[in-house]
Amino acid sequence: MDFWMSSEKHILVGDSERVARNAVEPVISELLEGVELSCGAKKWSVITIVMPDERVGDYPEVKRYHKARQVIELRVQLPFYEFKEAGSAEQIGLVLDALTRSVDMMKEIKSLKITGEEYSILKKIVEKARLELKV
Predict the structure, then answer these.
(1) How much is the pLDDT for 120?
(2) Using H for helix, E for strand and C for coil, what is the string for the chain?
(3) Is residue 135 part of a domain?
(4) Does the pTM exceed 0.85?
């Protein structure tokens, strides 16, 4: 399974979100090598949203499955002020928290037929990444 991340972020966050994402993305990608889901999804795509409270409404969370492209698309909000004030290890932890939440959001996608075991596998991958990144 392939993994891809991007973000919608406020300028006040600066490069810190990109740095955290660049630490997480290759670890998750490596852990997902060889993982195949029975539903046929080939890509897990996550966009983190790091916007202050007054702007977050313009960037809603999204959860959908593009069956033709075999892509699970999730847009997950990160707590802006907590992220902005956190150190780099805490920021990586918040990105991993968002990934865990994105797995939970997958359960709400009616067209995505992932088994309970596959949810567990994805959750365990995020937890393994947390251990590897020591956060």
Answers:
(1) 97
(2) CEEEEEEEECHHHCCHHHHHHHHHHHHHHHHHCCCCCCCCCCEEEEEEEECCHHHHCCCCCEEEEECCCCEEEEEEECCHHHHHHCCHHHHHHHHHHHHHHHHHHHCCCCCCCCCHHHHHHHHHHHHHHHHHCCC
(3) no
(4) yes
| Owner of token pair 């939440």 | 101
Angle between helices 116-132 and 16-32 (to 10 degrees): 120
Q: Given the DSSP bridges, would you call strands 43-50 and 71-77 parallel, antiparallel or unpaired?
A: parallel
79 within a domain of the structure (yes/no): yes
Chain centroid to CA 135:
16
Q: Tokens in use for 27?
A: 């670890």
* Cα distance between residue 90 and residue 123, in whole Å: 19
Domain that includes residue 86, residue range? 2-129
Cα separation, 78 vs 82, in Å, equals: 8
Decide if 134 is inside a domain: no
Domain total for the chain?
Answer: 1
**pLDDT (tens digit per residue) in 17-71:** 999 999 999 999 999 999 999 999 999 999 999 999 999 999 999 999 999 999 9
Biggest CA–CA distance in the chain, Å, is: 41
Residue whose pair of structure tokens reads 């994402």 in the numeric block: 21
